[in-house]
Design a protein that fits this description.
five-stranded parallel beta sheet; globular; Arc Repressor Mutant, subunit A; Rossmann fold; four-stranded antiparallel beta sheet; alpha/beta; 8 helices; about 40% helix; 2 domains
Length: about 220
Amino acid sequence: MDERVLLVEDDPSIREVTALGLEGAGFRVTTAADGREGLARFREGGFALVVLDVMLPELDGLEVCRAIRAESRVPIVMLSARSDTVDVVVGLELGADDYVTKPFELPELVARLRAALRRAAVPDEPVLRVGDLEIEPGAFTVRRGGEEIGLTATEFRLLVELARRPRQVFTRELLLQRVWGYDFLGDSRLVDVAVQRLRGKIEDDPREPKLVVTVRGVGYRLGSG
């Protein structure tokens, strides 16, 4: 595999055990012990994925996530020790692609990271059009009237998946499988938050969506705009 992963975790024992486990799974791991160091390491470049704890000294994980997402589409997987869902939802709203709750089993984390990397690889295919949107899957771009719309990797994959099958109604479970690559590991909140964020960027009025339409009791489908 050999992908470079940045692991930002302040607990020395968790950081060491996780780094060793990820290296054993074939990743090249760089570690950081606080948010400020993590952001500095990220800006050195070359990382395929970031594993980011929520609770960090110096600069918390949510602020680091916000800063990374402003600069890059690199996949971000958050680690949260809290049973409360607030951090999870905020992290997803800031552009994180997924989360894992502590304590976690290393095989689960490895599976999540591999799924995130698979999702990041978008195959080349013809331009897709939705209303006045022009989507180029291979170039990872969405434009309206010649102006590019900035989407995260997850938002982009979600839009592409809906646009490929414009008449299909997608359940949340199906979107978890198609967009996130999960059969049983996923959480339907990932879908709802991603849809909310996507609507905020592509809809004229996100409160009355015309492009990503809710099918009550089922899931989502593409609208005509």
